[in-house]
Amino acid sequence: MSSPHWMSLLRRVSLLCGLAIIAVGPAVAQSTSSSNTSNTLSASESSSTSNELVADSGLGDGETLSLAVAALGSGTGSGAAQEEGGGWRHGRFGASHLAFEAGAGFNAPIGNDTPFITWGGNFTVGGGLHLSKRVTALLEYQFIDDKLPGAFIAAEGTSAGDSHISSITGSPVIDLFPKKSNSIYLVGGYGYYHKSTNFNDYECCSIYGDDVAVTVGSFTSNQWGGNAGLGYSHRLGGVYGDSKTKLFAEARYTFIHTPPITATNGLGTTELIPVNFGVRW
Hints:
This protein has helices at residues 3-57, 61-90, 150-155; strands spanning 98-109, 120-130, 135-147, 160-175, 182-204, 211-235, 246-256, 270-280. The radius of gyration is 44 Å and the shape is elongated. The termini are far apart. The chain has 3 helices and 8 strands. It folds into 2 domains: 12-90, no CATH class; 95-280, Porin, CATH 2.40.160.20.
């Protein structure tokens, strides 16, 4: 095949391609123009609608923008508040609201109980819930150990004696100044008390050759009782001064309605004042 023939064929193909491009070009341009026009119209319509709303409300652009920003801020704040409130409600009795205490101290008998018990010691442990920053509800266990007066022991014809009181009480604690590092609080309780009074003699002998105390007489009683008192607390720092750990010192009047001394299972009404020092968190 000769070269002029190839050139003629090439010209024909080029001509056909050029015609195709010329035909397709306006269609593409028309489509692009339509799309741009549609977008412009949409933006125009949106702008027109916004302007109409602004015109209807009688507010300027600045006022509208301020109201929009305020509405968005209000919505976000409300959501956060609801989330915070919801979280607090769900976590009200969570781990962060648990309360614990531990303390120890001494006891002083008062009233009609003075001839039957003397000074002694005690320890207290408890747990519960912080119902609010001001109010804490505790379930407490307390053990009180008192000695018996010498005259009372001699009247029974024994050599030694002691009195033990175990109690489980429900005790609310009301902080009068919850935002202060140093505060005063009210405390009270009511619950179950078990009291035992024991008279001992010494017999020979232990494996080490010492005399051994043997209980030769005992009175026990189970009854309801209560206590009420006042305390001082000092909150330990914390990074932001929001620590829940507090040192405390308190004194409570304790009343136990034990059976009268003439009964075989008790030694009459018990009144004493346990003084306690400890930590609560």
